[in-house]
Specification:
- This protein has two domains: 3-49 and 151-220 and 316-373, FAD/NAD(P)-binding domain (3-Layer(bba) Sandwich); 86-146 and 223-314, D-Amino Acid Oxidase, subunit A, domain 2 (D-Amino Acid Oxidase, Chain A, domain 2, 2-Layer Sandwich), CATH 3.30.9.10.
- 27% of the residues lie in helices and 26% in strands.
- The protein contains eight helices and 18 strands.
- The strands form three sheets. Strands 1, 2, 8, 9, 10, 11, 17 and 18 form an eight-stranded mixed beta sheet that branches.
- β10 (184-190) and β11 form a beta hairpin.
- α1 (13-24) packs parallel to α5 (151-164), α1 (13-24) packs parallel to α8 and α2 packs across α8 (341-358).
- Bound molecules: flavin-adenine dinucleotide.
- Flavin-adenine dinucleotide is lined by residues 9-15, 33-36, 41-44, 46-50, 174-175, 203-207, 211, 226, 228, 310-313, 337, 339-343.
Length: 386
């Protein structure tokens, strides 16, 4: 039986980042197994590419700050452009109470060093994004260093970089089971046979609960369908328009490659939570919000073929579970980023490789992200607005 120091289940952006960081740390006997026939066919390829530090909790802001530094260094360290573009994130609200919450979060962000984040009046918001119909708004918050990155380029950078250092990636290799005893995983089983593992990383995104269960571990990570409406090429909004969020409408949009990308609320399929079929009935609801808030979009046409549905990997407190799985000392989790996994992937790969190779994360305090927090009754409690 072939044996690796680390077997990573899932070759999406998080699995690839963990692989790259392990290899950079000198651990190159690493195997990445992915059930899909090629890279990026889980949630990573569906992500819209938003990047922000404007979060409601300290751990998420710290993860974003670490990821931001790493995205800035990515061209030099990893060897390609991850597409980071500081076009900004503009949160807008119709309620004073929500505004107070956004400003409270912003005070925390500024305390952690995000000095570019600032409150905006409605008039200032209109200068930042003149396309918005401001009626009913009371204000918002803005951070110009938030913006965009290219999920598939981050994935490509980490995958190709890890490969160059000797990491092996196998696609079409679904992990079906694990040999676990005495609190350790000894091997993982695929249709091609068993592979011995010194350690196993669960990087299976929305499917992480199923993979953890193979080692007898129950983790609270569940899929949530998220749909994206995409217009035909539309010249009416600038490419570097800030990602604009209407908080109460649960609607946000950006421009990507000349098309407008619009999201509204979550769209679970109760019959099959892993379903990624696009639900047509949802489209009129998202376009109604688009027309209300961005009137120029009345001239844009939705390109049905470009619309997609994917899965968020939700945890109960919408923070990642990072570290060793409770009860299985060599099974490591990087699961439950709750729709923020691409932007946090550079940080998560670094932190998990520190945990695996050095026994503890040194780049930031990951105690609030420990997988055991739910069983201990200590989930993170900060509100999020997106
Ligand atoms: C519509 C949409 C928009 C999003 N927008 C953003 C955004 O703007 N910014 C952001 O940061 N995040 C965004 N996200 C979230 C982001 O896509 C995820 O957080 C991120 O991709 C998670 O990365 P991952 O590597 O854990 O998961 P994935 O990319 O899903 O990778 C997991 C991999 O595990 C594999 N796998 C599963 N089970 C097994 C098994 N048994 N054996 C082997 N392999 C297995 C799958 O094939 C898959 O390739 C969005 C998600 C969606 C759906």
């Amino acid at each position: 039986m072939q044996t690796y120091d680390v077997v990573i289940v899932g070759g999406g952006v998080i699995g690839a980042s963990v692989a790259w960081h392990l290899a950079m740390g000198g651990c190159t006997r690493v195997l990445v197994l992915d059930a899909a026939p090629g890279p990026g066919m889980g949630s990573t390829g569906k992500a819209t590419g938003g990047f922000r530090v404007q979060f409601g909790s300290e751990p998420n802001v710290r993860l974003s700050l670490l990821a931001w530094e790493k995205l800035l260094r990515f061209p030099v360290e990893v060897g390609l452009d991850p597409g980071y573009r500081p076009c900004g994130y503009l949160f807008l609200t119709e309620r004073e109470e929500t505004l107070a919450g956004l400003l409270h979060a912003q005070a925390m962000q500024r305390r952690l060093g995000v000095l570019a984040a600032r409150p905006v009046t409605v008039d200032e918001a209109l200068q930042i994004n003149p396309a918005v119909a401001a009626e009913g708004l009371v204000g918002g918050v803005y951070c110009p260093t938030d913006g965009f990155a290219r999920p598939m380029e981050i994935l490509r950078g980490y995958t190709e970089g890890a490969r160059r250092m000797g990491v092996r990636f196998e696609y079409g290799a679904a992990v079906r089971g694990m040999a676990a005893r005495d609190g350790r995983v000894a091997a993982v089983r695929t249709d091609r046979g068993e592979v011995g593992a010194g350690a196993v990383v669960n990087a299976a995104g929305a499917w992480a609960g199923k993979v953890a269960a193979m080692a007898g571990v129950d983790i609270p990570v569940h899929p949530l369908r998220r749909q994206v409406a995409v217009t035909e090429p539309f010249a009416g909004l600038p490419e570097c328009m800030p990602l604009t969020i209407l908080v109460e409408a649960e609607f946000h949009l950006r421009v990507r490659d000349g098309r407008v990308v619009m999201l509204w609320s979550h769209q679970p399929n109760p019959a099959d939570p892993f379903d990624t079929t696009f639900d047509e009935a949802w489209l009129p609801q998202v376009t109604a919000r688009a027309h209300r808030w961005i009137p120029s979009l009345r001239d844009a046409r939705v390109d049905r073929a470009a619309c997609v549905a994917g899965l968020y990997e939700m945890s109960p407190d919408r923070h990642v579970l990072l570290g060793a799985a409770p009860g299985v000392e060599n099974l490591f989790l990087a699961n439950g980023s709750s729709g923020h996994g691409v932007m946090h992937s550079p940080a998560l790969g670094q932190l998990l490789s520190e945990i695996i190779l050095d026994g503890a994360a040194t780049s930031m305090d990951v105690h609030p992200l420990r997988p055991s927090r739910f069983a201990e009754g200590q989930p993170n409690a900060a509100p999020e607005f997106l």
